[in-house]
Amino acid sequence: MKDVQFLVRIRKTFKMETLKSYEPTHPNVTKNELVSIIMREEPVRYIEFIDDDGNPYHLITNRLDLTEEEILEAYKNRWYIELFFKWLKQHVKVSHLFSHSPVGIWNQMYIALITCALAEIMRLIYQPTKSG
Questions:
Q1: In the sheet where 7-9 sits, what is the strand order?
Q2: Most exposed among 49, 113, 122, 130, judged by the fewest C-beta atoms under 10 Å?
């Protein structure tokens, strides 16, 4: 599990110990620190930022190579992924994944989207015309 990369939101009360502080370079970032947490031997990055609406967010990641901007962008993009999965569940009826490997997940997504597109084509071709 050492090779698993993560970027997660944590509560403000999450217990951690600051190892090193960095001067924030992004205007929305209020803290950028290297921290130690109980669950991991390796240090992780802690980013605290305020969104455009004034809401505070607290993130940790083991991606020490990313800039503040890249971390904020990656967190923002997580929501687009969540919306995509919500759409899949509602419209394509993909309720669970059959595989945990990246290739298996991609294959299931392609099959689901192709099936959805074919069903939409069939609906458009055979859609009853309104008479009136």
A1: 7-9, 56-61, 44-50, 29-36, 17-22
A2: 130
